[in-house]
Amino acid sequence: IAAALCMQQASSHQAPAAAADTNTGQGHTMLRLQLVRLCTASKSSALTAASVTGFPLRATSTSSAARAAAGAARAAASSPAAAAAATPVVDGLTRYPQLSAPGILRGLDYYGTTIFAASGAVTAATAGMDLFGATAVGLITAVGGGTFRDGLFLHKQPFWLSETEYLYMAIAGAAAAFFAWPALEKAGADWDMPFLVWSDAIGLGAFACIGVQNALRMGMSPIVCLICAISTATFGGLTRDTLCQRPHRILYSHADLYASTAVVGGTAYLLTRAMGGSLAMRILMGVACGAATRLATVQFDLHAPAWPKKPAAAAAVTAGAVAASAKNDE
Q1: pLDDT greater at residue 175 or residue 5
Q2: Based on the number of CB atoms within 10 Å of its own CB, is 68 exposed (0-12), middle (13-18) or buried (19 or more)?
Q3: What is the pTM of this model?
Q4: Burial of 1 (0-12, 13-18, 19+ CB in 10 A)
Q5: Per the count of CB atoms within 10 A, which of 41, 154, 179, 319 is most buried?
Q6: What does the pLDDT look like over 250-278, one tens digit per residue?
Q7: What are the distances in angstroms from CA 225 to CA 230, 251, 301?
Q8: In this predicted structure, what is the pLDDT of residue 322?
Q9: Mean pLDDT rounded to a whole number for the chain
Q10: What is the distance between the alpha carbons of residues 5 and 46, in angstroms, rounded to a whole number?
């Protein structure tokens, strides 16, 4: 912008200079334009370009956005603290885990991916699938929610096409669970043990925050952000239950609350952001509220409101399931 303004001023000064003294005026103008190009190439500020050329810079736009951008640039040039304050906070996480709030969230994302892959593999193996089927279901459970979010709601390529480490850790976690779970079950392990319940809750809270962050970076409204939180945290499990022909835990009242806890985590993130909280505070509130709500639903056996089951309808469903099973056996 600085170079364009200076070149515009140069063109307006060039004609009078040429009329007075063609050689001298054009030589000075070309020298000044070359200096402007050098300043622009070295990413100098507009003030530096003006001081080199001697041309007064006049604003060509009176929009509020342009004035705000100019004020932010002047503040950034005058003070590093003001520059940090003027820089908007990007709702995201680091590329790899590190000792920062976004980096810790990335680590929790890795952890949750492995746990979800293991749960999917165990569920598929319990339903009678072999190693390949259990590993495939584990992979879908781990990355399916983010895939639905990216492809269906945000219209972008799935995250695992560029972040392939998620494929490796999901496949490894699913295969390891397929071989290790029978021995662990004999030793008394089950999915209701505290370690796995806490792991599931933390993974759900992290997935909900990441879903909200992805939607915010795409400029989505709060309601779409919450839908992305639900998708990231639960749609992998929804696909797992469909493939294993099990009742979907997020849709039926036979299981405790699950999708609603993702809504709580996503809402906490959005509210903290609306109140001006830092990125670390947003992540902390989102993960903590989502995980705490999930743990509370397990502890107090909370369920969503549902109509009472009618005996006739239940019998009809049972009869239809038996008929379908018999037909499959034939």
Answers
A1: 175
A2: exposed
A3: 0.69
A4: middle
A5: 154
A6: 887 666 788 899 999 999 999 999 999 99
A7: 9, 20, 27
A8: 45
A9: 78
A10: 9
Taking the C-alpha atoms of residue 59 and residue 177, their distance in angstroms, rounded to an integer, is: 64
Element (H, E) at 242: helix 222-243
Q: CB within 8 A of 252, min separation 6: which ones?
A: 306
Q: What tokens does 115 get?
A: 């746990």
Tell the residue number behind the tokens 């906490």, with chain if given.
268
Residue type, 148: F
Q: How far apart are CA 204 and CA 260, in angstroms?
A: 11
Residue with tokens 């970076």: 217
Selection from 93, 77, 39, 76 nearest residue 287 by Cα: 93
CA-wise closest residue to 53 among 108, 106, 104, 10: 10
Sign, CA dihedral 279-285-290-292, equals positive
Query: Which tokens in the block code for residue 29?
Result: 């103008």
Q: Please check whether residue 269 is in contact with residue 283, taking contact to mean a CB–CB distance below 8 angstroms.
A: yes
pLDDT band at 249 (very low <50, low <70, confident <90, very high): confident
So what's the pLDDT on residue 121?
96
